[in-house]
Amino acid sequence: MILYTTVPYEQVYPTDAADFSGQMMVEHQGVPVLVQKVEDKYRVIRVMSSDPAHYMNSSICPGEFITN
Q1: Which of 22, 28, 41, 66 is packed most tightly, with the most Cβ within 10 A?
Q2: What are phi and psi of 59, to 5 degrees?
Q3: Is the pTM of this model over 0.90?
Q4: Are 25 and 48 in contact (CB under 8 A)?
């Protein structure tokens, strides 16, 4: 079976559930992103959109903090 996906192999077939604790999918400004909760903010882990324009948005690039 071949999976054509942007999701990392480790997330499709996780080895340990603790690796992804606190990560969740949210929609920020109409863009689906994978985030991790850090105190009262969310840190962007990955942009999950297929629109190339969303990757140019500097406010949702990986590592940036957003409030939801």
Answers
A1: 28
A2: -80, -15
A3: no
A4: yes
* Residue whose pair of structure tokens reads 């985030």 in the numeric block: 35
Question: What is d(CA 42, CA 62) in angstroms, rounded to the nearest whole number?
Answer: 11
Tokens, residue 50: 């297929």
**Residue where the block lists tokens 């991790």:** 36
pLDDT tens, N- to C-terminus, the chain (68 residues) = 788 888 888 778 777 655 567 889 999 999 999 999 988 899 999 999 999 999 999 999 999 999 86
Domain boundaries, the chain: 22-66
